[in-house]
């Protein structure tokens, strides 16, 4: 029989193992995020050098999100077929091979197919990274864990362009950096694989993405709204600033302020989720995002716009972080995988409908179109979330 001291030591060891696995997963996904963050400006610069039009450059950039969107529904089946660990490690290595091919071919037509394939293989990394983080985190600490996870992912993406500044966009160095990021992701995931939860073997029927949508439509709407708001804001805030006469140098700083909030404030939001719950925090973040958007026309030419943008970047993405926390608290096993795959699908859909819709309204009514879209989407989310909560209480 174990003594109390031995049982405590075993418990401490188990907790330490969970934290080690979490650290490994988070580090691996940050490496992958840096590689992906590097790729966007790299391709733009290379295609500009080849004299390609902005339309062709934009179409090439869309190949990765299209790959993400089309592959989302296949992730749960792939997990059941080959196992989560093998799928993640294999996709990391295929991603490295894609960037090897991209660097070797230097052919913009071939890049379309390869960037689409990159989108296909990174989707399981998104899904499984979040599933592992949710599964490994203790329920009482899930909010802060997901806050740290998303903050470090954001930092990884932000590090990508910095790496490109250091290495330059000529020759093999930037491609080697991207390949190294994917290879390090594979190595780290393989090293911690013995501690990753075997949720793919739970034998539970999930019903796939369609089945999950019937169980948690409010969570999927939250992801759709977060994606549409975030990507519309990042894409069009410089256009919004131009409409109020801001100089070009300040336009880039507007996006930087949004990114800073996204990175710095996810952990405090996660701690708040542990105290108040994911559902309540989804509503809070949506209301705060709408309030920030309403204040933009009044503050855009004043110094107060900077703290507003920092908060707006945090709570806008915070809707997604809070949805993840709520997902982890309600679902386990195969349903958790299906839920994360559904999240990936809705994130892609939000990115497709958000920026074009906001851009069209801005063209029709001027700069006020951007805050109008943001407020409208967040109001829709709050109304539906409150309706679902009332329906659950009445039933």
UniProtKB/TrEMBL annotation:
PROSITE patterns: MFS (PS50850). SUPFAM superfamilies: MFS general substrate transporter. InterPro entries: MFS, MFS_dom, MFS_trans_sf, MFS_YcaD-like. Pfam families: MFS_1 (PF07690). The chain crosses the membrane at residues 21-43, 55-75, 87-106, 112-136, 148-169, 175-193, 205-229, 249-269, 281-300, 306-327, 334-353, 365-387. The keyword Transmembrane helix applies. Residues 21-390 form the Major facilitator superfamily (MFS) profile domain. It comes from the Bacteria. Gene3D superfamilies: MFS general substrate transporter like domains (1.20.1250.20). Keywords: Membrane, Transmembrane, Transmembrane helix. PANTHER family: MFS TRANSPORTER (PTHR23521:SF3), TRANSPORTER MFS SUPERFAMILY (PTHR23521). This is MFS transporter. It comes from Mesorhizobium abyssinicae.
């Amino acid at each position: 029989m174990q003594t109390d001291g031995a049982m405590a030591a075993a418990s401490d060891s188990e907790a330490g193992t969970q934290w080690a696995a979490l650290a490994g997963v988070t580090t691996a996904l940050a490496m992958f995020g840096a590689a992906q963050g590097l790729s966007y400006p790299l391709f733009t610069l290379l295609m500009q050098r080849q004299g390609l039009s902005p339309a062709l450059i934009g179409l090439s950039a869309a190949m990765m999100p299209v790959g993400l969107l089309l592959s989302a529904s296949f992730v749960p089946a792939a997990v059941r077929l080959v196992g989560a660990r093998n799928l993640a490690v294999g996709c990391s290595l295929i991603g490295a091979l894609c960037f090897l091919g991209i660097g070797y071919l230097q052919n913009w037509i071939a890049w379309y197919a390869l960037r689409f394939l990159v989108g296909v293989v990174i989707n399981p990394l998104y899904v499984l990274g979040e599933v592992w983080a949710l599964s490994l985190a203790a329920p009482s600490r899930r909010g802060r864990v997901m806050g740290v996870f998303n903050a470090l992912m954001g930092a990884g993406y932000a590090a990508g362009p910095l790496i490109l500044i250091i290495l330059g966009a000529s020759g093999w160095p930037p491609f080697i950096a991207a390949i190294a990021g994917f290879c390090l992701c594979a190595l780290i995931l393989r090293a911690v694989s013995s501690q990753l939860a075997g949720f793919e073997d739970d034998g539970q029927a999930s019903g796939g993405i369609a089945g999950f949508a019937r169980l948690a439509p409010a969570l999927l709407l939250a992801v759709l709204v977060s994606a549409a708001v975030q990507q519309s804001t990042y894409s069009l805030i410089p256009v919004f600033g131009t409409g109020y006469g801001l100089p070009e140098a300040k336009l880039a700083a507007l996006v930087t302020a949004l990114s800073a909030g996204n990175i710095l404030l996810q952990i405090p939001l996660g701690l708040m989720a542990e105290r108040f719950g994911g559902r309540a925090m989804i509503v809070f973040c949506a209301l705060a995002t709408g309030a920030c958007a309403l204040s933009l026309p009044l503050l855009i030419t004043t110094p107060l716009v900077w703290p507003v943008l920092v908060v707006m970047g945090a709570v806008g993405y915070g809707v997604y972080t809070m949805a993840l926390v709520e997902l982890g608290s309600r679902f386990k096993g195969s349903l958790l995988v299906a839920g994360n795959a559904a999240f990936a699908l809705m994130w892609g859909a939000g990115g497709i409908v958000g920026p074009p819709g906001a851009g069209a309204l801005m063209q029709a009514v001027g700069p006020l179109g951007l805050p109008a879209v943001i407020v409208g989407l967040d109001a829709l989310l709050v109304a539906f979330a409150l309706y679902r909560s009332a329906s659950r209480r009445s039933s």
